[in-house]
Amino acid sequence: MLELMGHPLVILAVAWLTIYLILRFALKWEPRGLKLYPLGILLKSERALWIFDRITSAIPSLIKVSSDLGVALGFGMMGFAIYILAKNLGTYLFAPAQVGPQNIVLPLVIGVTIRFEHLPYMLLALGIILITHEGMHGLIARLEGVRLKSTGFFLFYVFPGGFVEPDEEEFKRAPSKTKARVAAGGSFANLFVGLAALFLILSMFSPVEAGIIVTGAEAGSLLRVNDVVFAVNDVAVNRTTLYQNISASRVLVIKTSRGDLTYRLEEPMNMPLAQVLRMLGVTHIAYYFPMKAGLGDPLLEHSLYRLLSWIQLLGINVAIFNMLPIYFLDGSLLVNALLEKLIRSEKTLKAFNFALTAFSIALIALNIGFTFKTFGFLQL
């Protein structure tokens, strides 16, 4: 219990609550456009809306083409998501012998399925994803003549993001094409950002790892967190050699980013390199992919690689997931824009949306359930 109370995220939550209570009740501080919450802050502005009009005036054709392309890709991503989830579930049910890491479906929950070491990279990537997502919604809405009421940024606990607030009545009265373009715009932006990050990874970094980076280590171990390990007794460390045996009689020489480190053995050994690293106190690792035009600092290069990897992972997956026809996601708005002309009865339309939402959530829940049943508790 005491260990939990001393965790950085618990301390941050207490700090958030303390600052909120002081500013909100003791000082009664409520500046215009700024809203305080127990675990967050929201900055809303109407004056900043000129940014959207300036951009749409500068590149209207590009935004128009992007919005039309986004609708086509939106339906494509929706079909792809349902197909992949259904196929994955079929593998769990009817071909369990073929189940492997490629079938894992996990919710991204910090501290549960995501180790805390990923938090800075994940949060920065999430901020970029959310801001570009909402920004694209706003640009398309303005190009289509839908008024925006406000825009702004928020920080909820440790999660950053941005938002645009369209005029709901104008959006409801807008043509179906407008609704479809606005709905699909966010996922189109996410897909573009994710693919751009993937392109940067492929063009800037070597496709072959040059070692491993220690991301978790026991207290007092020879190797520390953020050490880059290049070789052990002249055996290069990579995903191939990691599971090969190495032999040593008296001493291990570990080539790292801090220089050569020496570890004296009590008796001769012959064991897999991964077990050697465990013996040296390493608990978690990540592969180190050097930059083709190096920055001169392996840790800095690895940090950039991890950030781009999270942008790519979140960008592509959020784009696809957001297009599922689930009531609170943009995919549902896209389906509604298509069906509202075909289904005149509002009651029938709501029932159809409810069925699609229930079906999609069931697919996700079953995939997650079978993942935990097959692989047990997992952390990335």
List the helices and strands and how they pair.
Elements: H1 2-5, H2 8-26, E1 34-37, E2 40-45, H3 50-58, H4 60-94, H5 119-143, E3 148-156, E4 159-166, H6 168-173, H7 176-204, E5 211-217, E6 228-232, E7 235-236, E8 245-248, E9 251-256, E10 259-264, E11 269-272, H8 273-279, E12 282-288, H9 298-322, H10 330-339, H11 346-375
Antiparallel strand pairs: 1-2, 2-3, 3-4, 5-6, 5-12, 6-7, 6-9, 8-11, 9-10
Helix pairs in contact: 3-5, 4-7, 4-9, 4-11, 5-7, 5-9, 7-9, 7-10, 10-11
Mean pLDDT: 90
Number of helical segments?
A: 11
Q: List the uncertain runs.
A: 1-5
Order of helices and strands: HHEEHHHEEHHEEEEEEEHEHHH
How many domains in all?
3
Q: What form results from the Cα inertia axes?
A: globular
Largest pleated sheet: 6 strands, antiparallel
Helix fraction, binned, reads: 40-55%
Can you walk me through this structure?
With about 375 residues, the protein is an alpha+beta fold. The protein is globular and about 80 Å long. The two termini are about 25 Å apart. The chain folds into three domains: about 1-45; about 45-205 and about 305-375, no CATH class; about 210-290, no CATH class. The longest helix has about 35 residues, at about 60-95. It has eleven helices and twelve strands. The strands form three sheets. Strands 5, 6, 7, 9, 10 and 12 form a six-stranded antiparallel sheet that branches. α4 packs across α7 (about 175-205), α5 (about 120-145) packs across α9 (about 300-320) and α7 (about 175-205) runs antiparallel to α9 (about 300-320).
